[in-house]
Amino acid sequence: MDDIRFPNLGINLHNVKDGFTIFGIEIRFYGLLIALGFLLAYIVVSKEAKRTGQNDEMYLDYILWMCIPAIVGARLYYIIFNGSAYFQKGKGFGRTIKDMINIRNGGLAIYGGIIAAVIVAVIFCKKRNIKFSLMADTAVMGILIGQILGRWGNFFNREAFGEYTDSLFAMSIPTDYFGNGINGLVHTGVITPTMAEHVNVYDGMQWISVHPTFLYESLWNLALLIFIIIYRKHKKFDGELFLIYLWGYGLGRVWIEALRTDSLMLPFANIRVSQLVAAACVLAASVVLVKKRMDYAKNLE
Fold it and tell me: Are 118 and 86 in contact (CB under 8 A)?
């Protein structure tokens, strides 16, 4: 029941748990990966700050300022666009609040975290009299590292996957992991009717075959990180790396989000929120990048 397969790659992972228990305390891999992401992000950002002649300790101060607001922002974003899962008639105020603050089962939206982190950065830069654009360029590699690791939390939680596929990278999950049976899973929206129609049987269990969108996004972000690391010594202006991040991540998120079946939707339209935000980031970053590049070229004349 805890196995995960990538049948077309010949990979079968046995007994993949979503966490472990130590001294009676349940620890989820999702939370561990977020914590590890913050740690590795600081290490990389600190080295980049030293390379560019900045005070690296300032970035530790920023992370301490930012980590809680970023998690709160990610959670609020998720709740705002998935309110029906929390605000239910007859549920009661106490139970509603408890479910809203319980992030142990996932429910964090990266765009909410990024928005909160940017707001904190603007305030932090004003108080420390620091140039925001330079700080954003320095921090962007840390952001990507956090996202790359964070997506693997979705893997352990068996969430944020896409629609049915039998492609090379197709990921298979036993339906017994989710419980409720095929009809129950379709009714509750855990799986789609298309997934149910293409259920396979391995080892006497029923398995769904889906797009591992967590993997797509993690690899996309890795490619973007490598590009930024290579390009950073050739940037033309402060803020360029952050704009490239917004453009590159947004572009990837537009197509990856289209594959997912659990997207947060606008309450008044059949539009995926993250896809809309990603497209807006691509458009805005494109405009600013072109303008800044033109200004840079004029200054060279």
Answer: no
